[in-house]
Write a structure and sequence with these properties.
Shape: globular
Helix content: 25-40%
Order of helices and strands: HHEHHHEHHHEEEHEHEHEHEEEHEE
Radius of gyration: 21 Å
Number of strands: 13
Number of domains: 1
Low-confidence stretches: 1-7
Length: 382
């Protein structure tokens, strides 16, 4: 396949290109993918399953220089095979106190029935009144040889309902996320259409740190679609182990906490990727690793995907390694039929026509439309 020459230095160093010849069920492939995900996301307290603050670690990363020396853009055998230990980064996180709003949101207090009812009603509206359904259908029709797609893997679709602290005096004890509802409907619509076009079952996988156990029950027992909910936690990263060259990826995550495209670029070329628009030109952060200094003066090497000081002219919304840019520019095309949202509406409250807001106000329903305005659909050229 064309595009083999665009693998990153790190990917070549670890011989990850060999993974493309292995099935997703292969144990060696799974082990290597999980190891890389551990590397990329070791600094994220949510992925590690710790409800905590990253402030101390962020301050530690500020001891790194913004523009790294050349050697930090090259693979480092020591940290590639032995990333920082658990004890190293656990000491930089503090758990949120029990009873705090963030702690409360992570409790499994919303019933599976409530979650399913919201999604079921939204799916009915997607089919009957949605302003985006026909456009999504046209975009999927533009994929040549759709029979190549064996599975759809969704990253970061988001929780549909989350609990609200009763102590805040809310009339409604849960919070609705219309954009997350729309993103689940998008996945269902895509799989249904692919199944009609190919005449066979397309597996639908999803993973999100915000899913509670009741979300898993609601999605896996849904009467409108059969989601398989994967475990995205540290040391598992199941969603990435299912991504290969015969996959369609729907990616609504964001760097640096979950640099999905940086991970995928090293070992797979999905047939279709729906993700944030990749900048075509400009500055890029290609740091493989960087050196930080602890309070006692001890210098430690940590992965370059951690929260770090950015070079001048780069903000967190455009954080993109050059190797990801090269992959998307040289090996993919943007499908223009996929509906892009109006930037003026993406944060506007009450614009999503898939949900019934009823008595909800801004404190019990997020704003936003279907997805962010920079969302694009990329189709592999070869």
């Amino acid at each position: 396949m064309a595009g083999h020459g665009h693998y990153s230095l790190e990917g070549k160093f670890l011989k990850l290109d060999g993974l493309r010849g292995l099935l997703v069920e292969n144990a060696e492939r799974r082990r290597k993918v999980v190891r890389r995900c551990n590397w990329y996301m070791f600094s994220n307290p949510e992925i590690r399953g710790r409800i905590g603050s990253i402030n101390e670690f962020f301050r530690l990363c500020q001891t790194a220089v913004s523009n790294p020396p050349p050697e930090q853009e090259k693979p480092n055998e020591e940290i590639a095979k032995n990333p920082p230990s658990q004890s190293f980064y656990l000491k930089y996180f503090e758990p949120q106190p029990e009873g705090s709003p963030y702690w409360f949101m992570r409790q499994d207090l919303i019933s599976a029935k409530s979650i399913h009812n919201i999604l079921s009603k939204a799916w009915g509206r997607w089919k009957n009144v949605s302003t985006r359904a026909a456009q999504v259908s046209e975009a999927i029709d533009s994929i040549s040889r759709p029979n190549r797609i064996k599975r759809v893997v969704c990253l970061g679709l988001g929780p549909i309902l989350t609990a609200l602290p009763h102590s805040l005096g809310e009339d409604v004890p849960d919070k609705l996320s219309p954009r997350n509802v729309a993103q689940h409907c998008l996945a269902i619509a895509i799989v249904n259409q692919l199944e009609r076009k190919t005449g066979r079952r397309i597996s639908l996988y999803t993973a999100d740190l915000g899913y509670t156990p009741q979300h898993k029950v609601a999605l896996e027992s849904s009467t409108i679609a059969h989601f398989v909910v994967l475990d995205p936690s540290y040391g598992k990263h199941e969603q990435f182990t299912f991504i290969d060259d015969n996959t369609m990826v729907i990616d609504f995550t964001g760097p640096p906490d979950c640099p999905a495209m940086s991970i995928i670029e090293e070992y797979a070329r999905p047939i279709v990727i729906i993700t944030s628009k990749i900048p075509q030109a400009g500055q890029y952060q290609d740091r493989q690793w960087f050196e930080v200094t602890e309070k006692d003066g001890n210098k430690v090497k940590v992965p370059g995907c951690a929260n770090l000081p950015l070079p001048d002219g780069i903000n967190i919304g455009t954080l993109c390694p050059k190797r990801v840019r090269d992959m998307m520019v040289h090996e993919y095309r943007i499908e223009s039929k996929f509906p892009a949202e109006d930037p003026n509406l993406e944060w506007t409250w009450g614009q999503n026509d898939l949900v019934d807001y009823g008595s909800r106000d801004r404190s019990s329903a997020d704003g936003g439309y279907y997805w962010f305005s920079d969302t694009r659909m990329y189709v592999r050229k070869h």
